[in-house]
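Objective 1b. Sequence-to-structure analysis of alpha-1,6-mannosyl-glycoprotein 6-beta-N-acetylglucosaminyltransferase.
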Amino acid sequence: EKCEVPTDPAYPVCAEKVEFLRARWQSDPCYAFYRVDGSTCSILVYLSQVEDFCPTQPGRNHTAVISSSSSPAVKFIRSRVERMSESWIWAGRGMKPNRNKTVSPQMKVLLHLGALAGDVGQRFEAMVDRGGPLGELVQWADLSACLTILGHNLTFSTSKRQLHRSHSRPLTFDLIYTDYHGLAHLRRAMGLAFQHYQCRFRILDSFGTEPAFNLASYAHLHGYKTLWGSWGLQPLQYMTMFPHTPDNSFLGFVGEDAVKTSDEFKPEIYKKDNIAVVYGKQEYMWQGKSDYLEVISQELEIHGTVYQPSGRASSLPGFVKNHGLLSQENFLQLLRRAKVFVGLGFPYEGPAPVEAVALGCMFLQPRFDPPHSSHNDVFYKGKPTTRQITSQHPYSERFVGKPFVWTVDMNNRTDIREAVESILKTKVKPFTPPEFTCLGMLERMRRYVTHQNFCGNSTAVWEPEPVLRVLLGPLGQSCVDVCQRSALTCDPALFHRFNTPDTMVQEVNHLFPSYSPWGRLCGLQQEPLLFSCAGSDSSHRRLCPCRSHRE
């Protein structure tokens, strides 16, 4: 079969992506899982049917359009909200009253799930029942429940047609939550009004968008231009799954617990069997991990929940008991029985480890040395972040830690064995970090909806005004790290307090304000959109606005 790379202005990076995969298709087993073999035809099928960078090839079967009522993704969201409704209601009743005694007005809110709309949505929907990623759906479910409990009026859109219907009367919504795909839909639907109303947007962005990637002109000039980013929004309009950087807003989600929040801990509910459940629903994630799992299997019975198409022989190790792809309810039941939840190194930074720990499991995961980033990892390449990922789940490694989270060298059998032996001697109660409880998310969202205002010139800082501590970091460290080393948090809203002296050089640079010891110069920031806690460079010492942590 002969395939030619199409030239379609609606898919401007198709040819570039084809060239990338011709050179790199063997760099990740995920590509082989989707039958990429290096040929132009296999690459075009992948880039049109799995990703959304090329148009669908003529003559190929298209995925049937799924109506919202039968959509697996919408069913998952509805099921999660219904299953957790009692916890949400209980948490809503337990919220602290507003200190200032003011009642937040009811807002009209649009939730447009761009990842479920159009061609991208058809491919996303098809993957939900085959072990595809569910983390984004978890966030959408919890966001919709949260806003409902807070008393706001929601409109839910999962198609371009619904979106256009919503805009028959141009922008009647006070807030619009969407994702990167949805931003493109909104721009087409709204025309010239898009720029005027973009201050109302909130972008669900799992891995975050750092300021250097957000400003199109700066990103293009300084090598930060990617397929994502360049929208010129306020960095806090991007809402992340984990607190990656204070430049963005941490939205989060809720870790499901086996007992209601109001109940006492009952050990008999959490009676654990001597089993480990492996985190990885598709076979390609298991490739090359047999030795790692074999060490664990010497002490624990290994269970998997891997999607396996009928007729295809399994490539899983023989000691694995595979349950196949489970419903969320059955998967949670399996985790309630398990002592250990085992990470394979991928998927990165999903919600499952938090939920496993909330169900009384300990999480065992691989350490990355050197750290994974856009420079050495295909998954992060092109994402608008410079973060260095030191393990599969850096949030759990850094903010939860032992005895709940154990990070090991996956290639060191002794390290793995010692960790498993320590785990088996350790007893833990179910643990959910406060920020991942229903109450924690409700309090956080109430403050965002009440205080975050990106329309006009508002640069309000949270009340009460925090105590600023300015720290000059060492060369090559970001302000996130500088503040964290002093048990503080970087707050980008506080940069303006010391970005003022007339004697300092003013430039557009995402590392400013900072000090360059070679030129003995202090540089100030001229572009407020580039105030960044995340940036670092070996020739600059960052001047950082630090404050104490907020609960």
